[in-house]
Design goal:
The protein is α+β, with helices and mostly antiparallel strands and 110 residues long. The chain has helices at 2-6, 11-26, 34-38, 53-56, 67-78, and strands spanning 41-44, 47-50, 88-90, 99-103, 106-109. The chain is 38% helix and 18% strand. The strands form two sheets. A three-stranded antiparallel β-sheet has the order 3-5-4, with helices on one face. A hairpin with a 2-residue loop joins strand 1 (41-44) and strand 2. Helix 2 crosses helix 5 (67-78).
Length: 110
């Protein structure tokens, strides 16, 4: 998921996307494991939406994980996370969650 969502971002951008997934696992608002977080769907605006676009468009199944992405994910799993507040990221700023910062192509929200 991190490669599919942030493979074109720098190392820190990959860490932040991994943080979103791990922070959701730790949150009471989301499923309690990585697989269910990544595959979660929500119903709004009259249709189902995947939390991660790469699941919907199946890009997640087509990427080859780079060594940089592998290292970023392992660092976030085994060390101190870069950010424990972020729960959402997108290519734009939205108003239904608190905006925290942008990095690379992503806007991160709480």
């Amino acid at each position: 998921c991190v490669e599919a969502e942030a493979g074109d971002q720098d190392y820190l951008g990959k860490c932040y996307v991994a943080d979103v997934i791990l922070n959701r696992v730790d949150s009471d608002e989301f499923p309690d494991n990585v697989v269910d977080v990544i595959n979660q769907k929500d119903y709004w605006d009259g249709k189902w939406h995947w939390q991660f676009e790469v699941v919907k468009n199946t890009h997640i199944n087509e990427v080859k994980v780079s060594e940089s992405t592998r290292q970023a994910v392992m660092e976030e799993l085994t060390g101190e996370r870069k950010n424990t507040e972020i729960l959402y990221f997108c290519m734009w700023k939205f108003d239904w969650a608190e905006f925290l910062f942008n990095h690379g192509d992503h806007y991160f929200h709480k």
